[in-house]
Amino acid sequence: MEPRSTPARRMPVNVRDVVVHDPFWAPRQEQLRARTLDAQYEQLVATGRLGALALTWTPESDEPKPHPFWESDIAKWLEAASYVLGTHPDPALEAKVDGVIAALAGAQREDGYLNVYFTVVAPGQRFTDLRDAHELYSAGHLIEAGVAHYSSTGRTTLLDVVTRLADLLCDEFGPGGAHHGGYCGHEEVELALVRLYRATGERRYLDLSLTFVDARGTEPHYFDLEQGRRGTPGFFGEMFPQREHRRREFFEYNQSHAPVREQTEAVGHAVRAMYLYCAMADLAAETGDEGLRAACERLWTHLTTRRMYVTGGIGDSRHNEGFTRDHALPNETAYAETCAAIGLVFWARRMASLTGHAAYIEVLERALHNGVIAGVSADGQRFFYENPLASDGTVERADWFDCACCPPNLARLEASLGSYIYATAADAIAVDLFIGSTVTTDVAGSRVVLRQDTSGPSGDRVDLTVAAAAPATWSLLVRAPSWSRSVAVRVNGEVPDGGGAVDENGYVVLRREWADGDTVEVAFDVDVRRVHASTLVAADAGRVALARGPFVYCVEGVDVDVPAHAVLLGEANPQPGATPSGVVPDLTGPAWGESRGQADQDSLYFPERAARAELPLTAVPYYSWNNRGRSTMAVWLREA
């Protein structure tokens, strides 16, 4: 089976066709391969997830009781490991992957069904609780893992398993199926089916994805129908009884409050929303559906102009793990789940492919370098589920979670980073992210190797070198990032025709006959800048955030003599200093701190302002906070 091309305007390259050698990202990927994947595998073993695939659990056994969506954690780990194997052969890791695939194959039923919970805990109840039980969500992650394993290794051992599962879903949920009209309470299978279609060319997988998307939010509401047939609360009905008492209100939680083409606001559970919007963008690209594209563009505008944190985090509330109202962006209580920022990266990439516009990559870059990678510690062993933008000193990362969606999700994104750096069309290569790497791809009928050298994602220069067997005419598109005041381009040392102007899509377009050894030098003007929030964001009133390149910065109490929220910036911006967290510099300079000393401990309110004293400021990249123990932290700072 050969992956098919798609009508999307530009498509990412395969992970295996990109080698990352960036001074910032390459060490992170190596740590993922050498440490993080092993640690996550051990957690899958220790918590019973992998052992459950043996199907030996009984109510009388001492084994951990399987959970309905344990397979999703296994699948995301498999997907991450598969990407790693595609670029870095590792016999020990490959053996683990093969063992997990064999266990999944052994747990699969004759008809293709694969879910441990509904095989040994609740047999006979499959597909009766789509709202809560995550069967299709888990199936989607298994399908994604199968596609990743196939595209990275060329082997079909896992792909064979997941195509049998997908075939069952087509039979059950397609026209004439026993569960036709149903859809999952946690979106994921929709985007996975599009990936499977692209890998295999089987049209019915694309059709089923569209069936799921079209059914969502229609009346009579499927979740009401299945509740009536079942006669009992859903899986989470006892844990969250308000879902049963206010059922209509909670349709927004899983984006089933209206048909998707009529939706205008990003609502509900943030991760679910992102995965739905990913599928909508994919389907718009594959089918040319203008209604889906228009809905995606409306939802994107609403999210990024009213409900997104400066870090690219999304979802302000722990109550629903998602959105509440416009401009509600509290900092200390921000939920900003790691998976939600990852989902935003996924959706942004799809919107960029659909439209060819760099604005989507801007958001992707912001989320990736801040809201996503803050989710893992410097040693790759501890994780954030939530990512607040301020802390009183009680927040810290954890080794693992009962609901462990974030760690393997982060792993699969970091492992697949190469597919986000470049995008290709028939006669064009786009450089979307400034990450040192080498891509090998076909363009204009010619095999081209493009090497990108940088000093890191916030560096002020990128050097591109072309290697090609024969000259060919094609376009090289270089994104003009908003964090640089200017972009200067030279081709083989000369200013190109047109002076390197930026086009309407946000790229410098260099179209010419490219030959072996051609070079492009891109120079950025990278300064420390202050970011001001909309006056409608009450939490950020009178405050600014510091940023340089794609990175947002924060202040930690460990670096100052006052709580982080009591720091005030001076008139001059702090400047790049030391690089203790790697190639991304800290920002240092004079600032002010407010304190009343012991009086602040003895009383709450005072007639006069607190005394201010000058102090040396160190601001660290947001992604690196909480690597030196517990400490207060603040992204948004007052000005003196």
Order of strands, main sheet, comes to: 2-6-7-8-12-10
Q: Which class do the helix and strand fractions yield?
A: alpha+beta
Give the terminus-to-terminus CA distance. Answer: 63 Å
CATH architecture of the largest domain: Alpha/alpha barrel
Number of helices: 17
Major sheet details:
6 strands, antiparallel
Gross morphology is globular
* Number of domain modules: 3
| CATH level 1 class label of the largest domain | Mainly Alpha
Radius of gyration: 25 Å
Number of strands: 21
Regions with little confidence, pLDDT below 50 for 5+ residues: 1-8
Relative strand content: 15-25%
The level of helicity is 25-40%
Q: Averaging pLDDT over every residue, what do you get?
A: 95
The CATH topology annotation of the largest domain reads as: Glycosyltransferase
Structural write-up:
It contains 17 helices and 21 strands. The longest helix has 22 residues, at 25-46. The protein has a six-stranded antiparallel beta sheet. A six-stranded mixed beta barrel has the order 14-15-19-18-16-21. 35% of the residues lie in helices and 19% in strands. The chain has 640 residues and is α+β, with helices and mostly antiparallel strands. A hairpin with a 2-residue loop joins β6 and β7. The model is unreliable at 1-8 (pLDDT under 50). It has helices spanning 25-46, 70-87, 91-107, 117-121, 135-153, 157-173, 189-200, 203-215, 222-230, 242-245, 270-287, 290-306, 338-355, 359-372, 406-415, 418-421, 599-602; strands at 11-12, 18-20, 390-392, 422-425, 428-431, 437-443, 446-454, 461-468, 472-479, 484-491, 507-514, 519-526, 528-532, 543-548, 551-556, 567-569, 575-576, 587-595, 611-621, 632-634, 637-639. It has three domains: 18-57 and 65-416, Glycosyltransferase (Alpha/alpha barrel); 422-526; 528-639, no CATH class. The radius of gyration is 25 Å and the shape is globular. Pfam families: Beta-AFase-like_GH127_cat, Glyco_hydro127C, Glyco_hydro127M. InterPro entries: 6-hairpin_glycosidase_sf, Beta-AFase-like, Beta-AFase-like_GH127_C, Beta-AFase-like_GH127_cat, Beta-AFase-like_GH127_middle. Its EC number is 3.2.1.185. Residues 528-638 form the Non-reducing end beta-L-arabinofuranosidase-like GH127 C-terminal domain. Residues 429-525 form the Non-reducing end beta-L-arabinofuranosidase-like GH127 middle domain.
